[in-house]
Design brief:
The chain has 285 residues and is α/β, with parallel strands linked by helices. The protein contains twelve helices and nine strands. α9 packs across α12.
């Protein structure tokens, strides 16, 4: 069986099937075994684990996952890759390849059937154009998760980990940090992929919190406040929330809430921590 993390093996498989990369699917296949080993190590996958892989491509990381996990489900959107995956994964009996769009699959139902509702591990080299919808979809639908270990655009990984007052800090930082502990475990240069992407990449591990790190009486309101605060970063928090869709509180109510929190009236959203957004949402209920 050819190990696909070795470039010449990847090239041989692509030539055999006369495969053409699809730009619309953001296809960049890993060709560095050290990076693959780092992802597996960071994910902590063991023979106890059911792993969901999103976008297996030609099965490069899937081969590694099959060696370490109890069972692997690999969801691939590109129909042209299914025959290739049948061949490259033929040595394994603990993998199921599903052709489909991960954003349209009921993962909760899938996990109930496949893993009796127990927490799963997600490992993926994600297409960069849909990184955020996939991650937020997994968190917001409350799929039983242990962790998500993913390759993403370096800039996106930095945004997920960013703290208040930094240029990378935004709604994505707060959303991810509400659900999970974040850790960038490796930076990956473009030459580790085929074809080479135009940007650097990073592997980030998101370890799902069992309990949210902050207490909010209304999760939806808190996230509406966060989104409105960062929609117009240069505005003060009060002006950002004023007339924002889905937020019914008045300017005086927001100012009073800020006063109770001992924050200045001209504070910007980018200065608030997750805990402060939770407190603000509780005061504005």
């Amino acid at each position: 069986m050819a190990i696909l993390g070795i470039p010449q093996n990847t090239i041989a498989v692509l030539k055999k099937y006369n495969f053409n990369f699809q730009k619309k699917f953001g296809q960049n296949f890993l060709i560095d075994t050290r990076v693959l080993e780092r992802i597996i190590q960071a994910s902590g996958v063991t023979k106890e684990d059911f792993v969901l892989e999103i976008g297996p491509g030609i099965g490069t990381m899937t081969q590694y996952l099959c060696e370490y996990a109890r069972e692997v489900a690999a969801v691939e959107i590109d129909k042209n890759l299914i025959p290739i995956l049948k061949e490259t994964l033929s040595a394994y009996d603990n993998v199921e390849v599903i052709q489909g769009d991960i954003l349209k699959i009921d993962i909760n139902d899938f996990v109930q059937k496949k893993n009796q509702g127990n927490p799963i591990k997600v490992v993926a080299n994600l297409p960069y154009y849909i990184t955020t919808p996939i991650i937020m979809g997994l968190f917001e639908s409350h799929v039983p998760l242990d962790s998500i270990t993913i390759m993403v655009q370096k800039e996106v990984a930095e945004r997920m980990q960013a703290g208040p007052g930094t240029k990378d800090y935004g709604a994505l930082s707060l959303a991810v940090q509400y659900y999970a502990k974040t850790e960038i475990v490796a930076n990956v240069p473009p030459n580790c992929f085929m074809p080479r992407p135009g940007v650097g990449s990073a592997v980030i591990k998101l370890t799902r919190y069992r309990e949210a790190p902050v207490i909010t009486s209304d999760e939806r309101l808190m996230f509406a406040l966060i989104r409105a605060s960062f929609n117009q970063r240069r505005k003060t928090l009060v002006n950002g929330l004023n007339n924002a869709a889905g937020i019914t509180c008045s300017k005086p109510q927001v100012l009073e809430a800020l006063r109770k929190m001992e924050l200045p009236a001209n504070v910007r959203g980018e200065a608030l921590t997750l805990e402060q957004f939770a407190k603000l949402s509780n005061l504005l209920l």
